[in-house]
Amino acid sequence: MSELDATTLDGLVERLERAAEQLRTGDLSPDAAASLVEDCAALASQASAELERMARAAAQDPPPGQDTLL
């Protein structure tokens, strides 16, 4: 995982954690809470796509010392 990948994931996780804190406080109106939940779903989808992209990239590169066979 490159530093950029980790930074992207860390940013998404941070945003999800902040949203969870806001939801836990109970200070949001029902409409604002619903909107925030939708935002969380979009963030989770982005994080999932990023993890899948990273997994596919890692699977394409053989581990050090492992050569591909003919």
Summarize the structure.
The chain has helices spanning 3-25, 30-60. By secondary structure, the chain is mostly helical.
Structure commentary:
The protein has 70 residues and is mostly helical. The chain has one domain. It has 2 helices and no strands. Helix 1 packs antiparallel against helix 2. The protein starts with a helix and ends in a 10-residue tail after the last helix. The mean pLDDT is 87.
Key structural traits:
single chain, mainly alpha, 2 helices, 77% helix
Q: Report the β-strand fraction as a percent range.
A: under 5%
Number of domains: 1
- Measured between the Cα atoms of the first and last residue, the distance is 27 Å
List low-pLDDT spans.
Answer: none
How would you characterize the largest beta sheet? none
Which H/E pattern describes the elements? Answer: HH
Computed CA radius of gyration, to the nearest angstrom: 18 Å
User: In DSSP terms, counting alpha (H) and pi (I) runs of 4 or more, how many helices?
Assistant: 2
How many DSSP E strands?
Answer: 0
Structural class per helix/strand content? mainly alpha
The pLDDT mean sits at 87
Helix content: over 70%
Shape category:
elongated
